């Protein structure tokens, strides 16, 4: 470690840092099918592929306990990792949950957290198989690893999208981000006047999207039943635009998505307008919805065209055409990824 | 979360907390062979068992960067998890490494950390397959998950020790603990007088035991070659006495270990005496040596009796006889586990 040269992490950004780290390492074991660069690592265990994904949640960076109940946090910590396994078209079966906590936390607080973990384990049929519990100098840190499985002929990478494939997205977007804005505002109001009670009734849907996101395992099971293997897939943790960039980069393609096809809830739109925000900002760049973004070949369209919760937002093009948002007026404008980068 | 009842975590201790958490959860998937309670979780992937272990390392709790070089820390973070896989008689093949770091850390510092991770990956033939990189409000937190494999007929649990089995330990004990005492003392000297340079030459062996522990994969491979499957095994992370308690509890047996058989390095003994500590305190209760403690049936003894690095320290007895240290004078005294508990 040389103190003569100092490169700030935020100059590289999270993805730049990951690239720098990844280029150091090479594969040594045949069982390692795919390492860094997708939603989960892929291990060949013989009969099938095993998927491994891991995420850290840090107090003061990823969550604020002044409005995030611990049992919701436990649920979310599991759900976001199950979502990464879903993004490979896989089914999570095991998780490990590690926590580091300061003496500010009582056993009852930790118990509430694990009640949430258990609710998610039950909801997604996942077994808690291990973890580490330790002290921290301050705050709460959570690290979850999810392990899942997928048949070798059913795995979806980010890299498989082909020209003319249809771009699909589940659910609605931007809600978790707007929910966070509401929670942050109510926190400020409360700090300025502790007699004020938070006014959240009107924002129930979007606050729920932030505090209790669901992994879309239901869609993974439905696609299995319909015998559809997405040509590419990713979950929307950092925002639609950022995830589209990942698909375009890994699949070496261009993508056009249509503004008028982007799904959002009325509650999201109304709240964005109340906050004097363009709803598209929340829809394209708001993170943490944990919906699935995937591509299917044209032949599969008939099977899902009437699905109430799958939205067809665009097409895969040649790489040269780039990544564009086609506005309601029909103009393609280049789409920038303004995903969440905790280092910037 | 009720604030009426508040139970402090340190009243439960780490193992008490883990027990309370574990009793909440039950198994839902057939692939989950063994969950919480051993060095690693066990997943049945068909042809073999897969092992999963995870550990968190928190700045200010597990390491002090004022004397712990980042590349050593990267090596150690991997080694301690590979050691958990070794403790199940398995071979680690993949790891994930997650880090949360404050803006105090430059890219060059993180690069040094990952150089250490890479050195360990090369040493243990393990592939880095994923991880998470994120910001932290202060300090460095590391979470590593190791994934390994073991043939179904070769796995060693904590629970398999049988009466008359021989208790074995590799390497020497207490060194990492005494190395830590030296490093902490030199830090104090430096803080009081920054012109003083640390005097570490005399303590090179024990300081190395603290800063660069090795997972005993060499022993796992040797036992495989000798066709010996330990009847029980655990790695020594919390101290010999604590690990013996785990074996006794899980195997439902008693254990006698003999004071005059406990292996230690001269450097450990001399430094303990210099610190006015009973060397047995370091040997029995000092953690972080990452040696292997295991039991073998009497029939296997011939195969290893001349092994230079395996020490035969005692025997498995009926449960009723308890866990005892037989002193040099031949007196059995009950052995208390004073392992490291970061909550107390």
Structure commentary:
2 copies of one chain form a homodimer. In chain A, about 35% of the residues lie in helices and about 25% in strands. By secondary structure, chain A is of the alpha+beta class. Chain A folds into 2 domains: about 20-150, 2-Layer Sandwich (60s Ribosomal Protein L30, Chain: A), CATH 3.30.1330.10; about 165-335, Phosphoribosyl-aminoimidazole Synthetase, Chain A, domain 2. In chain A, α4 packs across α5 and α4 crosses α8. The radius of gyration of chain A is 20 Å and the shape is globular. Chain A starts with 8 loop residues before the first helix and ends in a 10-residue tail after the last strand. The model of chain A has no long low-confidence stretch (mean pLDDT about 95). At the A-B interface, α1, β3, β4, α3 and β5 of A face α1, β3, β4, α3 and β5 of B.
């Amino acid at each position: 470690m040389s103190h003569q040269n100092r490169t700030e992490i935020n100059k590289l950004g999270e993805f730049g840092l990951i690239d720098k780290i990844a280029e150091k390492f090479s594969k040594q074991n045949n069982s390692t099918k795919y390492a860094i660069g997708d939603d989960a690592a892929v291990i060949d265990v013989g009969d099938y592929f095993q998927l491994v994904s891991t995420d850290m949640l840090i107090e003061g960076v990823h969550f604020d306990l002044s409005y995030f109940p611990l049992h919701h946090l436990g649920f979310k910590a599991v759900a976001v990792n199950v979502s990464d396994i879903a993004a490979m078209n896989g089914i999570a079966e095991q998780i490990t949950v590690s926590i580091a906590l300061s003496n500010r936390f009582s056993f009852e607080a930790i118990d509430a957290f694990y009640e949430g973990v258990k609710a998610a384990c039950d909801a997604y049929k996942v077994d808690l198989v291990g973890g580490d519990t330790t002290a921290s100098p301050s705050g709460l840190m959570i690290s979850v690893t999810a392990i899942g499985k997928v048949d070798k002929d059913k795995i979806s990478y980010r890299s498989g999208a082909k020209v003319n494939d249809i771009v699909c997205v589940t659910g609605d977007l931007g809600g978790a981000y707007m929910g966070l804005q509401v929670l942050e505002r109510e926190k400020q109001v409360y700090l300025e006047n502790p007699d004020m009670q938070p006014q959240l009734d009107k924002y129930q849907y979007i606050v729920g999207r932030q505090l209790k996101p669901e992994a879309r395992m239901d869609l993974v099971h439905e696609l299995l039943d319909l015998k559809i293997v997405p040509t590419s897939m990713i979950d929307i943790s950092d925002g639609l635009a950022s995830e589209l960039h990942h698909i375009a980069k890994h699949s070496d393609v261009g993508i056009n998505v249509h503004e008028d096809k982007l799904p959002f809830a009325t509650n999201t739109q109304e709240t964005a307008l109340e906050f004097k925000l363009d709803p598209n900002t929340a829809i394209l760049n708001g993170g943490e919805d944990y919906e699935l973004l995937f591509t299917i070949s044209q032949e599969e369209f008939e099977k899902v065209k009437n699905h109430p919760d799958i939205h067809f937002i665009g097409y895969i093009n040649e790489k040269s055409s780039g990544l564009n948002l086609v506005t309601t007026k029909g103009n393609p404008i280049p789409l920038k990824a303004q995903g969440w980068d905790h280092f910037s």
